Amino acid sequence: MATITDNWFETWFDTNYYHELYQHRDEEEARVFIATMVMYLELRAGERILDLACGKGRHSRELQKHGLEVVGIDLSKNSIEEAKIYESEDMVFDIHDMRKSLAKYGKFDAIFNIFTSFGYFNSREEDVKSLMNVSKALIPGGQFVQDYINAAAVVSKLPEKGEKEINGLLFSWSKYLDNGYIVKDIQVNDGGDLKNFQERVKVYSIEELKAIHKEAGLKVVAEFGAYELDPYEAETSPRIILVSEK
Question: Less CB within 10 Å around the terminal CB: N or C of the chain?
Answer without folding.
Answer: N
